[in-house]
Amino acid sequence: QPKKKAAFGSVGRRIPYRILHVINQDGESLGNMHRAEALKLMDQHGLKLVLLRENVEPPVYRLMTGQQIHEEQVKRAEKKKASPKPGVVQKELSFSSAIAKNDLEIKTKQIAQWIEKKHHVKVTIRQAK
Questions:
Q1: pLDDT tens across 79-88, in order?
Q2: What domains can be seen in the chain, in order of their start residue?
Q3: Any idea where the Translation initiation factor 3 N-terminal domain is (predicted)?
């Protein structure tokens, strides 16, 4: 089975492109350069080349320290956790503020069942007229 490509990670020395657009660790553009120049720059500063955008011409790489790479990976992992998962079902329930006690109890039981099934529940309460 082929390995899944990491969304973000250190590229190291394996760069399939001849011409790269390079950005330094401060976010400033260094322009387009040949792969050999980028590798020489990487070695001189003790940094790593990381692929940012592959689908543009030329592909964009950034020089980063190990710490910057780690921080970016943590940031992306937190962002991925925060986004809703494709398999999660969201249930929505709305009722009036003048709801009868019995109806409220039934809807509360329904919400409890949905939560047990690990559904996301959204409750809306409308003000009675």
A1: 877 776 666 7
A2: 19-82 (3.10.20.80), 90-126 (3.30.110.10)
A3: 11-78
